[in-house]
Write a structure and sequence with these properties.
By secondary structure, the protein is of the alpha+beta class. The protein contains eleven helices and eight strands.
């Protein structure tokens, strides 16, 4: 009881000899010793990090990190009726308040020039000022643009052959897709977010990055959104195989966005690109409840 009363706020994280050793540097003049002064907050922070690493190494829970890799929409979604009406209203307002463009002003100048030619009130010096350069009329430009427009073929928004291919990251361009990987858990194969086991000496984010880079034939380039996990999922082992040193597994999720497009598709690749509405077909209910909380259906 007496030791508990005399313990410092960070007594569970650092022993008394460590605090006494560090406090000597804080009392020593910096100019004479050359050592940096340590505050109590610095001591507590360092001790907490040491204690946290020790707890991870000795934890009865197996720690894992998973990455929620999303491919953001490539094209805009189709407008719903009210959005289409609002778009038309804005277009009408912009048209009524707009001024003449450069092309419209050029059309007026050409029309004025033609009217002066017909009225024999045209100064031939205007053409001489251009020299041998051919005068391009505004109507000629419109004809050229119209020919280019006829030869232009916009890409299809709905591609039945690609949209049905769940292994392609080019499907459903107007939706946000999530990467699922087939992984072995015990004696069965499950579709999960790419995950791997934490190794001593690395942060959980580094573990999540390794989970993504270690996928077979992957080569995904991703931008991670922060260093803190966005969710956690834990499960206990069956009682028959559960021990004091091995209770279960904790999976920490990190969010990332696909960058520079998806790598080329390989045959029999254990990957799926699915929409949020399709996750329930592949994920187990308990796992799905944790995952859908941080996946944005953009």
């Amino acid at each position: 009881m007496q030791q508990k009363k005399m313990a410092a706020p960070c007594g569970r994280m650092a022993s008394r000899p460590l605090l006494q050793f560090m406090s000597r540097f804080s009392r020593s003049p910096v100019g004479n010793t050359g050592f940096r002064q340590f505050s109590s907050a610095t001591i507590c922070r360092a001790a907490f990090q040491i204690n946290e690493a020790a707890e991870r190494a000795n934890s009865p829970w197996t720690l894992m990190a998973a990455v929620c890799l999303q491919r953001l929409p490539v094209i805009s979604a189709d407008c719903i009726p009210i959005e289409q009406q609002f778009k038309q209203m804005l277009h009408q307002i912009e048209l009524e308040k707009s001024v003449l463009s450069d092309h419209e002003l050029r059309l007026l100048e050409d029309a004025e020039r033609m009217s002066r030619k017909q009225a024999d009130d045209y100064d031939s010096d205007e053409e001489d000022s251009h020299g041998d350069q051919e005068i391009m009329m505004a109507q000629d430009l419109e004809d050229i643009w119209e020919q280019k427009m006829k030869s232009f073929q916009p890409a299809l928004r709905v591609r039945a052959d690609v949209d049905k291919d769940l292994t392609s990251a080019e499907r459903c361009l107007a939706d946000s897709l999530v990467l699922l990987a087939e992984q072995e858990v015990g004696d069965e194969k499950l579709w999960l977010l790419p995950q791997t086991r934490w190794q001593e000496g690395e942060t959980l984010r580094q573990t999540a990055e390794r989970a993504l880079t270690s996928l077979p034939a992957a080569g995904f380039k991703a931008t991670f959104l922060g260093n803190a996990p966005c969710g956690v999922y834990k499960y206990k082992l069956p009682k028959a195989i559960r021990t004091e040193n091995s209770i279960g597994t904790k999976v920490f999720f990190f969010k990332a966005v696909l960058a520079d497009g998806a790598p080329p598709k390989t045959k029999k690749a254990p990957f799926l690109w699915v929409k949020k509405s399709e996750l329930q077909k592949y994920l187990k209910p308990a796992y799905m409840m944790k995952v859908e909380r941080f996946i944005l259906d953009l």
